[in-house]
Amino acid sequence: MSWLVTGGAGYIGAHVVRAFAAQGIGAVVLDDLSSGRSEFVPAGTPFVHGSILDGAAIERAIEEHGVTGVVHLAGFKYAGVSVQRPLHTYRQNVTGTTTLLAAMESKGVDRIVFSSSAAVYGTPDVDLVTELTPKHPESPYGESKLIGEWLLADQAKAAGLRHTSLRYFNVVGSGTPDVFDVSPHNLFPLVFDALLDGRTPRINGGDYPTPDGTCVRDYIHVADLAEAHVVAARRLEAGDTLEPVYNLGSGDGVSVGEIMRAVAEVTGIEFSPETVERRAGDPARIVASGELAARDLDWRMRHTLSEMVESAWQARRAASDS
After folding, report:
1. Which residue intervals define the domain NAD-dependent epimerase/dehydratase in the entry (predicted)?
2. Number of neighbouring beta carbons within 10 Å of residue 212
3. Which of 34, 99, 103, 172 is a good FRET partner for 311, with 20 to 30 A between their CA atoms?
4. How confident is residue 279, by pLDDT bands cut at 50, 70 and 90?
């Protein structure tokens, strides 16, 4: 079996590709390199430089590489920016997913693992998010991910598509020193870049109703996330029935303040983060249960917070030294 990984040259996608290879499963990468990097694609892995908006390119990739399933990670992933660029976000994430599903149907590929997001929940009013927590996305990005889930469900009814969606929370760390988080908006890259530039990292808000006053989030290691994709793909390939969605959550949150302290300890760089004003719309706490994923996808937290920070720091330093 061979799986097409859209967005496979990105931070998360490259880890998914490596997880497939480690299990002896063939993978083909489709990526337009708008945010991914060709050097993140492992040597020997077929790479198609193309867009999910190009149905013909997707069909050719399916035909040429004997694709039997798809892991769909490609898309525009910046929630804050999506508010200023809603049309771009919907084109990439909704039109792109529709184009992909049409190409899959045309070529008889009926299995897909979809990269969804915690952004579908918006600002939940519960201590522990489950898959049944009401969805109230607060950005075009979150809305587009929820629409993607709907598209899969509708295509399942219409054409027998076999699918599951994995809702990500805060993905960090690195499973290999040659792949690192390149997002200009994520916490770890922002903190590391500040330290490497000799600047003081910032915390947005220090007066939240949490133990140390900073926001509490679910942080999960990217390699653990990638493993869940492999299990989901294998189960779909085997004909097993999966839930339509799974939260890949830890069940226990970590505060931004705790992240900062872990970074100082791992890097050996002493600093006191600067606390600035809250960002609009940032909830005090978002933590999710991963019980369903643990039951069906062998999901578990295999890395400690220190290991998450250390692996991310090593990969970022390796990039700086190369």
Report:
1. 3-249
2. 15
3. 34
4. confident
Phi/psi at 210 (nearest 5 deg)? -130, 165
Tens of pLDDT, residue by residue over 220-245, are: 999 999 999 999 999 999 999 999 99
How far apart are alpha carbons 17 and 42 in whole angstroms?
A: 8
Q: In whole angstroms, what is the distance from residue 57 CA to residue 164 CA? A: 24
Q: Round to whole Å and give the CA distance between 21 and 3.
A: 11
Distances (CA, A) of 174 to 143, 180, 193, 245, 299: 28, 6, 16, 25, 17
Please, what is the average pLDDT of the chain?
95
Q: What is the pTM of this model?
A: 0.96
In a domain, 255, yes or no: yes
Which pLDDT score is estimated for 184? 86
- Together in a domain, 232 and 151: yes
CB neighbours of 224 closer than 8 A, spacing ≥ 6?
248, 299, 300, 301, 302, 303
The DSSP call for residue 162 is: E
Angle between helices 305-321 and 187-196 (to 10 degrees): 50
| Pure H helices in 243-288 | 256-267
Residue 275 lies in a domain: yes
Give buried/exposed letters for 139-162 (b at 16+ CB in 10 A, else e): bbbbbbbbbbbebbeebeeeeebb
70 located within any domain: yes
